[in-house]
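Appendix B. Extra example for self-study. Work through it before the problem class; the solution is given directly after the inputs so you can check yourself.
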Amino acid sequence: MSEVTITRAPATGMITLRGDLSNVALQTAVTTLTGTGFPQQREILHEGERSVAWMAPDELLLLLPHAEAQATVAQLSQSLTDIPHLVAEVSDARSLFRLSGPGVREVLAKGAPIDLSPMAFQPRHIRRTRLGQVAAALWMVDADTFCLICFRSVTEYVDTFLATAAREGSLPNHF
Amino acid sequence: MSTRLATGGVLIDRTAPVHFTFNGQKHRAFQGDTLASALLANGHRMVGRSFKYHRPRGLVAAGVEEPNALMNLGFGDTFEPNQRATTTEVFEGLTARSQNHWPSLRFDVGAINARLSRFLPAGFYYKTFLQPRAAWKHLFEPVIRQSAGLGAAPAAEARDPDTYEHFYAYTDVLVIGGGVAGLTAARGAAGGGAQVLLIEQTAALGGRALVDGAQIDGLEGPDWVARTGAGLDQLPNLRVRTRTMGAGIYDHGYVLAYERLTDHAPGAPGPRHRLWRIRAKHIITATGAIERPLAFAGNDLPGVMLASAVRDYVGLYGVSPGDRTVLVTNNDDAYRTALTLLDAGLTVPAILDARPQVTGALPDELRARGVRVEAGRGLAKAMGTTHVTHAAVCAQAGEGAVLETIACECIAMSGGWSPAVHLWSHCGGKLTWDDAQALFRPDPARAPTGADGKPFVSTAGAASGALHATEAVEDAAKAGQTVAASLGQDGPEPALAAVNAPPEAPIKPVWLMPQGAGTELRAKAFLDFQNDVKVSDVQLAAQEGFESVEHAKRYTTLGMATDQGKLSNINGLAILSDALGQPIPQTGTTTFRPPYTPISMGGIAGEARGALFKPTRKTPIDTWLDANGAHWEPVADWRRPYAIRRQGESVASAVRREILNTRGNVGLLDASTLGKILVKGPDAAKFLDLIYTNMMSSLKPGRCRYGLMCTENGFLFDDGVVARLSEDSFLCHTTSGGSDRVHGWMEEWLQTEWWDLQVYTANLTEQFAQIAVVGPKARQVLERLGGLDVSRDALPFMGWAEGSLSQIPARVFRISFSGELSYEVAVPAGRGLEFWEKCLDAGADLGIQPYGTEALHVMRAEKGFIMIGDETDGTVTPHDLNLSWAVSKKKDDFIGKRAMERSYLNAPDRKQLVGLATLESKTVLPDGAHAVEGAKKVNGMENMIGHVTSTYYSPTLDRSIAMGLIKGGARRMGQILEFPVDKGVTIKARVVDPVFLDKEGARQDV
Amino acid sequence: MLMLTCPNCGVTAEETEFEPGGEAHLTRAATDSTDEAFRDYLFQRKNPRGVHFERWRHAYGCGRWFHAARCTQTLEVFGTYTAQTSAPPDRIQAAIQARRPDWSLT
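Solution. Structure tokens for the complete assembly:
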């Protein structure tokens, strides 16, 4: 038995929103939808089944139940008509993994060239980086649980990578 | 004979015997032994033969610097050659074989090379090239191939069953080396809370403290190490990792460390090796020092060992290298070996000290114990055939006249110590020559500097040149505290460990023994044991003009073996300096390059093997295609079906069937890999006018337009259909390989040049599955799915519509890359497979069949459509491809516009795209074949005027078709060109219009 | 391998997350530029031993471009800054001058 469990999350609604993140109307439109606060740089905030993540200075990622994604895109577009923006559903473009267990930081540190020690990485942080040879974004749900998203086409690679990294007896016990 | 002593050995566990075999013989050892100590304990003094002369060789060292004891380890899939016995921990069932001998270690045919050694001088290999060519081919090459080479190659069918991985770690301080200095520095660095990682290459902490006899804080060395190690384990901010070697230091605090997890415990779960990719704010190298051999005749005989190695074998492993050991030295430290031997009950017949006067505490202690200490003496030679039997004593000041011979089984030699400066030097740390100690040591004023321009490497202990234990501890404590302070994390100053070790008298450098050794002795005095380089070779190199140390190294191969000259470099450059009559610092050192010692290829590859070697991008239809006969080909990072074969069908037949069916009935193509980039904003149209060569602002919402993208150089690099979704949004299709590149390209211009434009982009390539329904019956298929009016009036050619098909949300583009009636349907990727299967069901009785990329290619070539990467190669403009119609003349600017105005890009004899019809219609031109014209050029080459870019057999036209880029092609219509494809074989083809099928486009516009 | 700080998302990351984009602060030649000016824009690049301004993209991170002022000889990074500028900002120039008193922007 491995110390880390890796599961593919069921279809999750994801929406990319690009625009001027300092615009108050945009902020209100987002927080009204998600029920969260507005994320600061590299922050992810959750409220129930909804999350909002800061992806870039002009880009957010919204996560929500899959069934609501299409309607939410329409709703956002509606409320942002007066602000230059781009909103697009990306639910199907990505795969979401959930990794859980006490060794989870070490499993990810085999592929992500970032500081995953508890001093450096905590819940509320989101980090876009790479896992092995593909792009990925990581965030923590709780002390022992990470979420990871990657592009849909490389799901199999990421799945195999994580399963390999989490094999029994392979954790360095460093963190 | 060497043997196991009855007592002693701080690293072995005498209650835990293990068994191993060497050259088929079964032996016993103890847990904690290295293969080297185990061999010595079992009487194996000769462990291999040398690389060039096949001379008998024994263990010289006890650590990473060992040049001789390279072994073939394991068998079958786990076989590995060239493994160092001194760094191989013994385990139950270990199988080792010695190398470089045939037929056996004792009797070796290749040893004849030694007799021929005067014909194999420095630069021998290079000199063979000076001979007539035939001599190299028939004489030298076969002989060299037969006799050279280290170890045996693993079997071709062998597959490494072990796993490997990488691990990324960030730390404030990395300490490399777990001896007294490393432990002291780590403790100091961690005192104020900084995160510290200490790595040690061997299985045990302690380094030389385990055997050197110094008392620390009133404890014997091993006890102090145990206590200190246990203390470090209690610190939450300090981590210690053994069996982990600092392999290399690189820019900005990057370090590769090589952890060997299961080499000593095969079969244990987990990876065999782990390559640590560490980023440290500061690095302390506490890598110790390496003892230097002395250069005297016969110094490579089995039984001649470094004094420190003798101390290690006795002290660490309880192994006697022989009853009688003659010690030859130029420094005090080696006397510790004599003490160790005496304490173990062994005999030291004499200590030969090259220094004219021998004073000091250590020699006095030996004298007091009745050992004969001879000042001003050296060795004329070590005597013996397969191992040492006698030491021939001479005056160091003389030419080697033998004063007496002393019977012995072992000669322990010490030429002084060189700090292990490798890691310090990897990233630019400079060295300084310390004349008093006769060594190169790191110059703290010229340390490697990091991102902030400040030093990020410091040294501690012997690695700094602080060789004496007292100095080493002081130096290491200071290093630890200085580093902590520089990180703003200094704690209370820890108590300095009190070291009790006798003071040492100065060393006297000895580079050749005796100093006046004649030709014969010099030709037997080895510098580099592994590459068989002698004092005479280096002198010859200097004589032949190889004065730079880097040249001399390559000419003689000194220091170029797998030990990278850890024993030989300093001695070699001292000999070179002497030959050149210049001081050592003027000669300088060769460059130290990572890794410190060889690391496994598996470790470098990490997890990237098999399925993880390279990511393969897969579309939502991939599983269906794979289950239904896809013959895959890589397209950029994707895999796409070249053809979808039926049971028993050849690939070529499948392609032919797919084409004819698509043209006759209806075909289905997985086009999901096409790039799909959303461009939106008030300035989107203006932006796309700059990105594309054609006008996109005039495109009406609801319509599609084929567009071209050029580089600033005017060369075409991507193409695709743009659909205007609304006044302020466009969907740009790109080539399969180009989506990331084009998206990056757009963002680059938006962010770095036209940041005033209000435009946002998103790469939606993977959000959608894109299925092309192609052929005369395509409309019927979509009509049967229902939900969207796909009639000619509602959805004309080059139009698009949005809605749903068979209850799946869909965007339908009426675009065609085949010349047929064609709909490209984008549906959410998650429903792609469902849509694909619905199409197959709906079209079953219409003869619908999936088709692959080759059918796609043939059909587009029949229509004369270009393919990025076939018709383009980064030097081709749209005009060259007859695509001038897609280059706007109205726009003020677009990327590539200015470039296309350059005279060269408008020259009439540029290569231009033409169709090529072979005169023999069944003959297909080879891809890339060159057309030639007229007389040969003065250099004898054909006058090439162009080449074939795409070539196929068209089942539709039942003849071969091709396109090519031919000089002045537009003016050559009707000409017959010659394509010499093989000796005496020339294919003739007529220049024709590249559109072979349906020039007027009637088939697609129905 | 370098460590660079992306000014767009604020992370200090290792080089494998970034893509280099060559010399910074080039001025795009206008469509009516002379052949010589256009040639220089396309091909003439500085290759100094010392202070250099470069473009980088945080390819595996936020995807955004930025500029870095770096010493090509020692690899010292004087600072990173926005890509939306045509010249190194004052704070970057000051940081360079503090470390390379002889340097000036010309």
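Self-check: Chain C has two helices and six strands. If your reasoning did not lead you there, revisit section 3.
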